[in-house]
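During the first year of the project, the team set up a workflow for recording each protein of interest as an amino acid sequence followed immediately by a discrete structure-token representation. This format lets reviewers and collaborators read both layers of information side by side without switching files. As required by the reporting guidelines, we include two representative entries from the current panel. The first entry is reproduced here exactly as it appears in our internal archive.
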Amino acid sequence: MRKDELELLKRNLPSVPGILRKDEYLNSAVLIPLILKDGEYYFLFEKRAAQIRQGGEICFPGGEFDPEIDKSYEDTAVRETVEEIGIKREQISVIGMLDTLIGPMGVIVDSVIGTVLINDINSLAFDKNEVEKIFTLPVSFFLKNQPEKYFVRLEIHPTEIDKNGEKIETLPVKELMLPDRYSKPWRGRKHSVLVYKTGEGVIWGITAALIYEVTKKLIK
């Protein structure tokens, strides 16, 4: 590398470091909706319709970033909320964002926090193809009740089984002359899983992690 190339490298380094190879992940965004009722803020949740991916689970509205439609992750979060919950864009006031969350299964989530002006959630015409129901829980519930913590351990596999039952080598260890230990599954680190038990059901995983991060910012 020549001196002029070093200068080129210096100019091309990001001013604010981001996430390397982010485009290899599923990039998504959610809105964490806050509704004011009787002087107290509530989280607005949705229960996913049974027939869709992760059906029956409780989450915040959101979805995959679409570069052809969305200019930012805020756009994604708001667009998906409007589509899923059936509210208007002008009813949402964004107040900020949480740090980016990288999930253990290759999902990156950018979370937008916003207040939502709704008088009665029962009047919302939510998308029943994606949402079974919507409901609210007071933020104070999560301040008073710490989540339970469990763990999973991930494994990395250098092979996979195709639809015909044949083993496919996705990482040709011998051909690349890598150490033989990489020809077998190797264990990753333990990953914590947070769980809140509520009267509306169990809230866990990424949604629980986002709730926990919000509550941490409310502790003086």
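The second entry, processed by the same pipeline in the following quarter, appears below.
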Amino acid sequence: MHIEIGDVSDSAIYFPDGGTSAVWGAAVTACGHARTAPGEPYPPRPGEHPGDHLFWLPRGGRILDGYQLLYVSAGKGVFETASAGAVEVGAGSAFLLLPGVWHRYAPDPATGWVEWFVELRGPALERLREAGVLRSESSVFHPGLGAEWVEPFETLLALAREGGVGAREEMSTLGMHLLARIVFSRTGREPSPEERAVRQAEARMRESLGEPLKIAALAREMGVEFDRFRRCFKALTGLPPKQYLLQLRMRRAEELLSRTGRSVTEIAAELGFNSAFHFSAAFKMHSGLAPALWRSARMTGNAP
């Protein structure tokens, strides 16, 4: 269902997780859209929101227990947190609210604004926060103006209204995709030291598949504390560093087995394994077949 920009009626929809976050890693638990006219009291239509989501200006603020992403598509205003202070946000800006962090925000009375929001919960968000990807001191983004930023919010609202089988799951995926696009939008945001270290480590792994890399030593080389490096690596790639390196080696092994006539012993040495036995054991765990059998199956078109 597509809704043209400007045709979406003001609304806020809240609903329980329902177990989606346990299966998918994240769940959308609210989404909404509101226009605040110049001079109109803020927040508009407070009856649409749960009591723990409200705050009253000019002195009020709040602390949430979930994550909220807000995007301003028209007008301007101010966003304030305890750690970052007050920051002006205008059309094309977005800001992220983190659990346990005091905050408040409001449109400029002279301009009002149009806002869109989505609320997310789940372990995937917690892992991103632990890894330093989501940070309260760096929670304002400037992805810019355009239909590509408004349309995901419209789709979330349409799914929330229509419901049906798979709607919550689709919303969770769309919500995380939208979060990733905004947080990593190319607008001058500086990556954290952990993020830079992960990207450098990925490149190093790809270039050095035959070296006996030690993950802890690699983290030290990148200048990042090991536990933070490991958490950030998993948050950004989906795998722990050691498992990620092993997967790279297994994919390279598949290429060598299928495209060259090199022996298992030669491939094991090229990929940094201590012996053909250790390589064969790792490859069998990866593919379900020993290397020689996998090669034979691939040649006959029967590979799993």
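For the second entry, the following points were noted during internal review. Residues 11-183 form a domain with the Jelly Rolls fold (CATH 2.60.120.280). The beta strands are 11-14, 27-36, 67-81, 85-90, 93-97, 103-107, 113-121, 140-141. Both points are flagged for discussion at the upcoming steering committee meeting.
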